[in-house]
Amino acid sequence: MPRFLLFYRLMVRPLLREPLRTLLTILAIALGVAVVLAIALAGDAATGSFRSSMETLAGENELEVLTSGGVPEYVVGTLATLAYSIRVSPRIEDYAVITDTKKSLPLIGLDLVAEGSAYAQSAFQKTAESQTQSAQVFNQVGDADDIWVGSSVGYRTSDRVELLINDRVRKYTVRGVYPDSNGNESAIVMDLAAAQHALGRYGRVDRILLKVPETPSLGDWQLRLRTVLPAGVEVRLRGTATNENRRMLAAFRWNLRLLSYISLIVGAFLIYNTISVSVVRRRPEIGIVRSLGASRGVILSAFLGEAACLGLAGALIGLPLGRLMATGAVRLMAATVESLYVSSRPGAIELNGACVLLALAIGVGVAVASSYSPAREASRVSPVEAMARGRREYDARVHKARDLWLALVLGLAAAAASRAPAVAGKPLLGYLAAILLVAASALAMPAFVDALTSVASNLLDKVFGVEAMLASRTLRASLRRTSVLVGALSTAIAMMTAVGIMVGSFRQTVVLWMSDQLPADLYLRPAGFAAADRHPTISSGVAEEVAKLPGVAAVERLRAYEISYEDMPATLASADLNVRRSHGNSDFFSGRPREQVFAELRDSNAVIVSEPFTYKHHLKAGDSLTLSLGATQASFRIADVYYDYSSERGSILMDRQTMLRFLPDPAPSNVAIYVSPDSQLEIVRAEIEKATAGHRVLLFSNRDLRAEAMRIFDRTFAITYALEAVAIIVAVMGIAGALLALVIDRRRELGLLRFFGAATWQVRKLILIEASLLGLLANLAGLALGFVLSLILIYVVNKQSFGWTIRFHWPVEILFGALTVVYGVTVLAGLYPAQVAVRLNPIEVIHEE
Amino acid sequence: MPILSLQDVSKDYLTDGQPVHALKGLSLNVERGEFVALVGRSGCGKSTLLNLAGAMDFPTSGKVLLDGVSTSSLEDNGLTRLRRERVGFIFQSFQLLHTLTVFENVELPLLLAGKRNPREAARERLAWVELEGLGDRHPHQLSGGQMQRVAVARALIHSPSLLLADEPTGNLDTMTGNVILELLKRLAREQNTATIVATHSLEAASLANTLVRLRDGKIEELTRR
Amino acid sequence: MKSRLAGFAAALLLQQPLAAQYRTALPGYRYEFPRDHFNHPEFQSEWWYYTGNLKSLDGHRFGFELTFFRQAVSRDPTRNTVWEVRDLYLAHLALSDLDAGKFYHQERTNRSGPGIAAASESLGRIWNGNWQTQWHGSDQELKAVSERFQLHLTLHPEKPPVIHGENGVSQKAEGPGHASHYVSLTRLATSGDIDLRDKKFEVRGTSWMDHEFFTHQLEPHQTGWDWLSLQLQDGTELMLFHIRRMDGSIDPHSAGTYVDAEGKTTHLHSSDFKLLATGEKWKSPLTGAEYPIHWKAAIPKLAIELEAKTPLESQELTGQTKLAPNYWEGAMVITGQRKAQPLGGAGYLEMTGYDRPVQLVP
Q1: Chain centre distance of CA A848
Q2: In chain A, which residues touch B (CB < 8 A)?
Q3: Sequence-ordered list of residues with C-beta below 8 angstroms from that of A465, at least 6 positions apart, any chain
Q4: At what angle do helices A718-745 and A831-839 cross, to 10 degrees?
Q5: pLDDT for A80-136, tens place per residue?
Q6: What does pTM read for this prediction?
Q7: Are strands C281-283 and C290-292 parallel, antiparallel or unpaired?
């Protein structure tokens, strides 16, 4: 107990005496913890618990039979008549949009005749309307406009619902409502026949779920079943898609998680600063306590304990804050996941014991770790110092030159690490290089601050007067503290700059790429919900009709399928390659002109693949790959690799005629329309709109489509920006806290200035100039570090995680804007400390010695 | 007209909720060139008197006229201007800014007042205190006596009419202290500056034209020589 | 006379007042085999029905039932895709483990779909999922897999097909068309395997096949029926059925058929035979229905008096969906006499409408 009492008196009480600054430190940790927690939670909710939304109503089936483009129907008959006691559940799977609410839901076609009895017994029977339910399943089974919906959609039996499916809108009648419990997501359920009719997709089902007897093992069942299935048709564990999605999302989540630690790193700087200040201020006290018999260990643990208290308090605030932020993060993350990877509905956010432990561990851990160095310094204070008069200045233990050498060594190590290849598919060494660089910059900071302030002080004196001179002198004098502050803020700024440059470069790359990739004048696409993994189709025949319109020079039909290639999701697409026009740059790695590559693809088993695809599957031009298409399996040669920034999933593109040989469904997912040069775009557009009036299609002009693409692009990176913003907020809070400390520590000096004739505005100006100097230093250092980090992000981390080739580009406006805002906020953060400085009573502080 | 005139001045403070009557109806006039020693026990109101005289604080009642201007009639800006032009301060613990050189410390009041190119004035003041050539040093490179000389130079940089020194020898050995006092006396005469030195030192008291002994916020003894 | 599907069909037909588009069973129908062993899509309802009494080499007795029903839903020619529900195919599979006192049964419903269920002359096969009968000439191979047991039986007809009723129709109620075309193979020498509880039984015995197709046959006042098939030791067979009316009386359209050892058939009018329950009943714990499980039959003009008893009381089939009527269908042991000579045999009894009246809306 006495030890705790002592700890309270000597360590905690001083903290309470400066509640605002203590609070700021705690809040900085809280924010750091909250962000990490929010991203972890949101990651789990947005992707971790990711079940393909098609897994709803999948029941207890263990196996699934599927192939690219759908399983031929006859396979259902083959499986149903096998002499094994297997339950066979064919499914047609797509999406429908409820036109009233714009809500997109899975559309699931089930064999309601065969499974109706099962539903009658289980799910359906639990609803109030169940008595007549099963009879209705059979009664209505012939009607193509009957649907069953999940309870959370909010419809009741016999409601009429209008659904947008692909490019058509139809009215349906709700025949029943099933409960969404048991992990069932809300979906629109139809009979297979109705679903085929709604989708205009005949001859194939998307998936066949199987429930097999317990013996032999699932692996044996897979082997057994494979022998009766056509070559291209695969039998695998159900939920494999979920795992594949998880695998695909792993890199994304991993990178996002790392990004979330930036705020924590910034927070660590601030803890370091807080504890350092605390140590320096209390040197005499430490000396006294030492002379009264406290050992070094006691002092060390006291300061570590102080940090741990701050960390714990921060973590405790960070927990609910993180939970709160997770809600927003889920939305942002889901948007990214949806544009880049797969359409998913975020699950519930679960704050479990592990998360709480994580928060506490990182809060306390970061606090203790970052306070170790000042705490150790405190433990080295000799008892004699208690008697020493006056305060030691902050630069007492700054070793500028030595640290600069260390920084150089770390910088070289970073350079080496950035050249290393990925480890287990993750750019571990790339991140190591980034961390080394941050560390190097932290070490180089004192030298940088010293050099810059000494250069600046003369200059500032001339331009901004004596207050500027005093400010720069003060910052330079408390070099260590200044360096830490500049280090914290510059790290945050560097991260922002780096990510800003990367995203900006990426954006510019995409803009350039699109101008090559979107050569047509108009684009037609179904109004149904499209996403990276959803490809609604336009009714077949529409494109051909459009082609006949006057003023239309040519149409290019694109068709995309979601496939699984070597346990990873991928997009398989086809296009009318003979139509596509050439437009400037080559899209290919080989640099060959488009016509030459397309000629190779035409009507042959050759494909081109996207850059992310080659990266994921370690393939290159000239290799061959085997695709399961419908009932067959075929080998394709990779003719070339093309740049593709539309999705991270990885794409395979073949000629339309080639695809139709394997998958005869002629409905295109998109149509690109070329207008004759002698026709007016608006007139042709009106013609097309008239011709497609019977279908729900969206007609984009080239410009609209690009704008739309950029909108999606920006949405994709919203989460990144949000993380940056939090890191900046943490840093700025740190600046405010540190300035406050600086004001309190220098109150004597500030009071003195008043004696010598300084007006209050001059004192305020002095503090604001200090804040702005800090901001300026941090911006300069951050911009420089950020530039180097952006190179690592673009050429190492991005390349190793996602495999995109990004051309470097300075996003000048955005960077300038962001840095200005940060700078402005930093200066604003000085307002309160300045006010505190102004309010100091000079008579009191001058006699405080 | 006296440069400083305190007319029936009282000053009350609240310390830990308890009212403290630091000065009780005190009156005093100080003329240009006059060297006043302010003596008395700790807590007798010496510092309070100096603060009121230096326009750092207002009296609770009564009037403080600095060069004929009542401090109570001025706002913060006016007080600041008054201090800048008329008053110089010297403290027991020198109160030099360690981040600044000797020159810069000395120049500080002029700079704060917005004056340009104060270096010549600083050089001159340093000559007065016999510290020529030490202008580029930092305070921590100086001895205590030298530091107090710098403080004196700083206090005189703007040629104030009133120089207020609060225990200027308190942190110095006797000999050095005496030297500083001699210096102050000489400068007061040369510059025609009124100087008030709050001190425990008998030496200082003996040097003064006027001796003011305070006791419990009142003048117990006023001796003009 | 296995009209249990009728109730189910009725539910469907509420929405499908299209019975008119189907052909009805009228006198003078010209039968042709094997064609008429298979599908008759122009009739709304059709079923193939196999029951049999079997014994393993070590004397373990089994009864089995395998039925395939087809019920037309729509003949709309625009509904022509594979998954369109033109017919519903139901099937029942039951195994009576008579010596162990156990009864297993399972039900399934399918559409024809891509080869899931059908009755195809070209393939010589009638099937519903992995329950099927495959014709090889005049022999049939029955295969059925359920979660708990499997059947694999070969059925060899010892007599030509029997056409019940008069002039090719089996009249069930008053008026033209209220009848069915009803064909039976009354004596099928059966051999094969039964897999039950990881044990394989090699079995032999005699089976009976019914095949009936019609469009509508019963009237609302007809509430249920009792049907008996009897395979007697002297090489003759009997089929007898009662249609019970709402007022408790026996409908005069009740009838039967006698098949002599050479396969010659004699139609029995309701006045030609007496079929009486002795009053011994089994009450179903599931449906609460009380089934008379001990019957006496007398055909004075053939001097036959028989008694039918079951070795297993619990042979009730209850539908999972509660759509099809619940019914009792079980193996029977026959004792009795003909012209004062003792006469034994085996048979199957079917009883419907004991838990509630079978709704017989056409």
Answers
A1: 53
A2: 393, 465-466, 469-470, 473-474, 476-477, 748-749, 752-760, 762, 842-843, 846-847, 849
A3: B111, B114
A4: 20
A5: 999 998 999 999 988 888 988 888 888 989 888 887 655 544 443 333 333 334 444
A6: 0.72
A7: antiparallel
Return the residue matching tokens 């990367």: A502
Contacts (Cβ under 8 Å, ≥6 apart) of C323: A134, A135, A138, C8, C11
- The full DSSP string for A504-572 is HHHHHHHHHHHHHH--SSEEEEESS--BTTB---PPTTHHHHHHHSTTEEEEEEEEEEEEEETTEEEEE
Give me the residue label for tokens 């699931």.
Answer: A108
Chains that touch C (3 or more CB pairs under 8 A): A
Long-range residue pairs from B183-188, CB within 8 A, at least 24 positions apart, any chain: B183/B129, B183/B149, B183/B152, B184/B35, B184/B90, B184/B152, B185/B35, B187/B128, B187/B152, B187/B156, B187/B163, B188/B33, B188/B34, B188/B35, B188/B163
Among A285-294, A560-569, C2-11, C120-129, the range scoring the smallest mean pLDDT is C2-11
Rounded Cα gap, residues C56 and C47, in angstroms: 28
Question: How many residues does this entry show for chain B?
Answer: 225
The DSSP element (H or E) to which A75 belongs, if any, is helix A74-80
Q: Does C250 touch chain A (CB under 8 A)?
A: no
Residue with tokens 């008892």: A383
**Cβ atoms of residues C158 and C139 within 8 Å:** no
Which residue, B135, B175, B172, is CA-closest to B153? B135
Q: Count the neighbouring beta carbons within 10 Å of the beta carbon of residue A87.
A: 19
State the nearest Cα–Cα gap between A52 and chain C, in angstroms: 26
Q: In whole angstroms, what is the distance from residue B194 CA to residue C144 CA?
A: 124
Q: How far is B161 from chain A (nearest CA, A)?
A: 14
A213 chain-C contacts, CB cut-off 8 A: 147
For the record, the structure tokens of A849 come out as 């010695």
pLDDT at residue A412 above 90? yes
> Residue A473: which of B91, B95, B99 has the nearest Cβ?
B99
Give CA–CA dist B186/A253, Å, rounded.
Answer: 78
Q: Is A814 exposed, middle or buried (0-12, 13-18, 19+ CB in 10 A)?
A: middle
Give the Cα separation of A83 and A680 in Å (integer): 65
Mean pLDDT for the stretch of residues A67-75 = 89
Name the band, by pLDDT with cuts 50, 70 and 90, for residue A384: low
pLDDT (tens digit, 9 = 90+) per residue, A161-188? Answer: 999 988 888 999 988 888 776 556 788 8
HSE on the CB side for A505, CA within 13 Å? 21
d(Cα C283, Cα C355) in Å, to the nearest integer? 10
**Chain A residues whose beta carbon lies within 8 Å of the beta carbon of residue B76:** 759-760
Residue A33 scores a pLDDT above 60: yes
φ and ψ of A414, to 5 deg: -60, -45
Query: What residues form DSSP beta bridges with A611?
Result: none
Q: Is B82 helix (H, G, I), strand (E, B) or coil?
A: helix
**For strand A651-655 and strand A606-610, is the pairing parallel, antiparallel, or unpaired?**
antiparallel
A617 neighbors A576 (Cβ within 8 angstroms): no
CA B200, chain centre distance (Å) = 15
Residue showing tokens 């369109």 = C84
∠ CA C317-C318-C323, rounded to 5°: 125
Nearest to C48 by CA among C193, C147, C206, C161: C161
> What is the gyration radius of the CA atoms in chain C, in angstroms?
19
Evaluate if residue C320 carries a pLDDT over 70. no
ipTM associated with this complex: 0.90
List the single best residue of A125, A141, A201, A228 to mutate versus C (max C Cβ within 10 A). A141
